[in-house]
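Weekly structure sync, notes
Attendees: PL, DS, HV (note-taker this week)

Item 1: Tryptophan--tRNA ligase
DS walked through the input record. Source organism listed as Candidatus Collierbacteria bacterium RIFOXYD1_FULL_40_9. Sequence as pasted into the shared doc:
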Amino acid sequence: MEKKRILTGDRPTGKLHIGHLMGSLLNRVKLQDEYEQFVLVANVQALTDNFDNPGKVRESIYELLCDYYAVGIDFEKTTVFIQSEVKQIHEIFVYLSNFVTIQQIGHNPTIKTELAQKGMEQSTPLGFFMYPVHQVADILSVNADLVPVGKDQLPMIESTRDLARKFNTTYDVEVLHEPEALVGVEKNVPGIDGNEKMGKSLNNAIYLADDEKILREKVFKVYTDPNRIRATDPGTVEGNIAFAYHDLFNSNREEVLSLKEKYRKGTVGDVEVKEKLFIAMNSVLAPIREKRMEAEKIKEELMSKALEGSKKVSNEAEKIVNKMKSAMKINFYEK
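Item 1 (cont.): predicted structure, written out as tokens:
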């Protein structure tokens, strides 16, 4: 029986953090044995808001490859590829652009949020504005059946389904698949500062590459209950980032429940809560950190594997491009 296809990926703009780990990376590791998995390094999209710093994007590709290796993505089982090396993605992007309006993109909640965060609302680079369509082209370049994502990326999957459906309906063909989303956690992993989202630009992330000392420092900066002045004051667990992280990383459920009960009663302090949190998080992240150090020594080999993967994807995407061109009556070499 033929395996279904998965595609997901990341923009190379820096190292990955625990939000990526819980939102997508662990799913990729789990599913690489069950599906034909493709992981995209979206360097062209990264250039849409880093075009004046290409060195950062180039170096970040290596960071991503090391993070992938560290969490357990097997480059023999998973096809890792680099976006700029698959020219067919950009051709698919052009064809799909006919099926989406400027107004639709402007109402995309992710775009609206990112434009505000980056201060681009009054002067928006076209490349950045159009990147949601480029993401759709990424997914459809291999006709993925399933896309592991964080909750904040669900609009991208719906856009992909919509554009695939429009193309197929317009030309009365079944060329493009409508993928399903697989969400890693019910909500995004919050930042250490209490922000709903963890991100590189927000300076509130715990990175997979952080050493033990840095991890401890960040854990002890985690937002708790601002109204709790003394350790003997009854505290609030809901919205408390320390307990949100305990729920994600602490496998000792009895300890977590006990800490929550004591916190509500005012019989345990933030220091103890965070000390136990550090121990729990470090037990999960230490093996990843160790493998990442190993990856640093073989990063050129990992790059070679990613370039091999790019050739494989290019061949697959060419088949899809040819079918799209045939549907649009522009495949002049079709026999």
